[in-house]
Amino acid sequence: MDTADYPEPLPKGWHKTFYTLWIGCFITGMGYSMTMPFISLFINELGTFNRFELNIYSGLAFAMTFISQAIVSTYWGSLADQKGRKLMCLRASGVMACTIFVTGLSTSVWMIIGMRFLQGAFSGYINNATALMAGETPHHKAGWVMSAMMTAGVTGNLIGPLIGGALSSSFGYRIPFFITGGLMFLVFIATWVNTKEHFKPINKTDMKPMKELMHNIPNLKIIIAMFITTMIVQASVMSIDPIVSLYVKEMMHDKGNIAFVAGVVAATPGLGNLLSASKVGHIMDEIGPEKVLMAGLIIATLLFIPMTFTTSPWMLAFWRFLLGLTNSGLMPAAQTILTLDVPDEAFGRIFSYNQSFQAAGSVFGALLGSMISGISTYSMVFAFTGITLFINIWIYVACRNKKATVNN
């Protein structure tokens, strides 16, 4: 990182805060992907379920975190504007350390679902860490920082399934939960000790109502379009996650090291994302996030066509790798657009709304994938996901055209 590129001085302690939060996001992403791709196999060991029941329970286990997250994230966003984002990072990492560890002790599917719900109610480390860094970084470098923070999570998502698959195969499905819980406790300590936020608290009585702030935001339709984009892109990522190990199991005809291959399939989007994120971030700063977002949406939609007809787990991994290359620009572009059009006093609340839409996308994607695979086939999940991305393109184009009309 070359600080000479910054015409504005960085706040004192910026680098230490950035690296600490980057590592925290990395561990959060790694912990998630160490456990989630294999949770359907974990559930399968806790009872006797038919195909439909197993798919639905897996979908619920995934979705429950995001249901509670969507419900409470606006409250946490308001609190973040009053108390700062560092406190929100501490809240998320501390509670996640406890709930993930306890999930590993589960004796029934409903205990898993309950712990996932509780985890979601207090989660949000990556989003708050991203919002914290957005507030600490000059706008002209926001694209690079958003991509760098996103890279932390996707790098963790890349490594997590491989580690989780190896641990699950050797020691069972509970061990990754215990390890993740311990790592999140270390994230809590590191965030508490190493991060510094230059935050000016806003008294609750001085906070403008969100309705007034939204009314004063220029190009509000674009902000809403970014919320919808976040939701649909997240749904496209999550639609296959709850059942990826079951799909791989079917394609492998229940033979071979299913957990490892499922881990590879789950990890390949993260690999693609990791390889392209930094480059995409710099391109975003040069040509603008709007062009990057549009190109990414079109390519991602097209990639779901071959994935619909794939019958080999290795070909599926290949197409998901290409999807990861493409997706590296989608979330950072949407978040960068938010940072450019939102006043500082509304950062926490706007990012919390965005988190709510992201959580809603996770719920929608997980339940959509589980239901479609339960009543039809796993491949149809990709067809429906491609359709939702095509709808997203139409929404974005409509809102962008309105923005251009207003500016002219």
TrEMBL record:
Record Pfam families: MFS_1 (PF07690)
InterPro entries linked to this entry: MFS, MFS_dom, MFS_trans_sf
Superkingdom to which the source organism belongs: Bacteria
Annotated membrane topology: Multi-pass membrane protein
Subcellular localization, as worded in the UniProt entry: Cell membrane
Span of domain Major facilitator superfamily (MFS) profile: 17-403
Transmembrane segment boundaries: 20-42, 54-72, 92-113, 142-163, 175-195, 216-238, 258-280, 292-311, 317-338, 378-399
Protein name, UniProt field: MFS transporter
